[in-house]
């Protein structure tokens, strides 16, 4: 999957590029509207992530030019502009989603993956499942075996990441950066505590056990081999 980020704030752009590359995407980054338009027209991207306020050509103008050229590539806007009319304008111009800064990387990643899946299949997948565990991205609800499970915002983000990367062993550093938006500190046990609490809610009292610890490597959510 190939993404293009057009973001003129260097720290934000580098942060997004690094995080999305760690999540398995090929990522291009540019900082101006004209350069973004050129790359978007010449490249074959699965998703564009656009800031609204860009030098030379703002995000709305960039998207309008793309649509006028017949390019239907999905677009996710990132902006500090949080007025309803700004969101409506972006969506009316043909954007697929609009995320207000500041944002959680876990939420951004979930939206990116949802848009990319929808682009591939033509159908939006909003419920993640494994065995009898379900996570509803839109309603922000989790259930197992039909039983509603209440999670904190961080627990929900952690479970969402594990489900999106189902079957992959996720190192603590990746979990820290994408759920907590922080660099991993080996002296802290915040990840272990969060996983333990999440496991108590979705695995205790249920079979099979879904969250596995891979010693020395990290955590994985998957159906155990029979």
Chain-wise SSE layout:
Layout: E1 2-6, H1 10-22, E2 26-30, H2 33-42, E3 47-51, H3 59-68, E4 75-79, H4 84-92, E5 97-100, H5 105-121, E6 127-130, E7 133-136, E8 141-144, E9 147-149, H6 153-164, H7 172-179, H8 190-202, E10 211-214, E11 218-221
Parallel strand pairs: 1-2, 1-3, 3-4, 4-5
Antiparallel strand pairs: 6-7, 7-8, 8-9, 10-11
Summarize the structure.
The chain has eight helices and eleven strands.
Task: Explain what the structure shows.
By secondary structure, the protein is of the alpha/beta class. It has two domains: 2-121, Response regulator (Rossmann fold), CATH 3.40.50.2300; 127-221, Orthogonal Bundle (Arc Repressor Mutant, subunit A). The protein is 41% helix and 21% strand. It has eight helices and eleven strands. Strands 2-1-3-4-5 form a five-stranded parallel sheet, with helices on both faces. The chain has a four-stranded antiparallel sheet with strand order 6-7-8-9, covered by helices on one side. It has a two-stranded antiparallel ribbon with strand order 10-11. The model has no long low-confidence stretch (mean pLDDT 87).
Q: Unreliable stretches, pLDDT < 50, 5 or more residues?
A: none
- Summed up, the domain count is 2
Label the CATH architecture of the largest domain. Answer: 3-Layer(aba) Sandwich
- Binned, the helix content reads 40-55%
Rounded to an integer in angstroms, the radius of gyration calculated over CA atoms is 19 Å
């Amino acid at each position: 999957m190939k993404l293009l980020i057009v973001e003129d704030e260097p720290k934000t752009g580098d942060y997004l590029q690094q995080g999305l590359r760690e999540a398995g995407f090929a990522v291009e980054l540019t900082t101006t509207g004209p350069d973004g338009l050129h790359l978007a027209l010449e490249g074959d991207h699965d998703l564009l992530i656009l800031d609204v306020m860009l030098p030379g050509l703002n995000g709305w103008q960039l998207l309008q030019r793309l649509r006028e050229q017949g390019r239907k590539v999905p677009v996710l806007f990132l902006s500090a502009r949080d007025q309803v009319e700004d969101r409506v304008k972006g969506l009316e111009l043909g954007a697929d989603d609009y995320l207000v800064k500041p944002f959680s990387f876990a939420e951004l990643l979930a939206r990116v993956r949802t848009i990319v899946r929808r682009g591939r299949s033509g159908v939006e997948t909003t419920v993640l499942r494994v065995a009898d565990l379900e996570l509803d991205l839109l309603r922000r609800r989790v259930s197992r075996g039909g039983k509603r499970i209440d999670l904190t915002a961080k627990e929900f983000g952690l479970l969402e990441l594990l489900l999106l990367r189902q079957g992959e062993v996720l190192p603590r550093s990746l979990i820290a950066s994408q759920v907590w938006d922080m660099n991993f500190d080996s002296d802290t046990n915040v990840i272990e505590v969060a996983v333990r609490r999440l496991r108590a809610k979705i695995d205790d009292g249920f079979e099979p056990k879904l969250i596995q610890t891979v010693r020395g490597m990290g955590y994985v959510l998957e159906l155990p081999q029979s």
